[in-house]
What we know:
Number of strands: 16
Order of helices and strands: EEEEEEEEEEEEEEEE
CATH architecture of the largest domain: Roll
Number of domains: 3
Largest sheet: 6 strands, antiparallel
Mean pLDDT: 87
Distance between the termini: 50 Å
Oligomer: single chain
CATH class of the largest domain: Mainly Beta
CATH topology of the largest domain: SH3 type barrels
Number of helices: 0
Low-confidence stretches: none
Radius of gyration: 20 Å
Amino acid sequence: MASTADIRNGLCIKYNNDIYKIIEFLHVKPGKGPAFVRTKLKSLTNGKVLDNTFSAGHKIEVVRVETHTFQFLYAEGQEFHFMNNETFEQISLNRDILDAPDLLKEGTNVMVQINTETDAPLSVDMPASVILEVTYAEPGVKGNTATNATKPATVETGATINVPLFINEGDKIKIDTASGSYMERVKE
């Protein structure tokens, strides 16, 4: 058993007969009253996110996990297929367990957390950013640059990202996987 002092991002815990991953947390010590920990939890079974507050010192049940590097092979409907880079064992995961499935390109390496008790995959951690090629973008309208003007662009995985007006088809762009937003243009 662990306590709220052990809470950190990425920790997997058992809570309300489900397994949750801690996305965000904040230790709060008000001037009056006891301290508490405000958390944002993501269910690893259905993908729902909920806010929860634990009182300081509250006992939490930690799920032991191992992290392995897997390579994304291909998607088939709602199923995404991955291969372990060390053992070459293949697994398939439902689209709901992934944080940003629209940004996954074939060959991308991801970190998969596996429950050590049941050997069941719990969550998939994407790389911090991915580089994708723009397959479709409207031409930028000259003179429409008063402020940070953006336009929608479609990348090679089919995702639509808002990009600056100077981005054209064929450009490679770096995308933040946490927010799904444009970071920068990548030059070869």
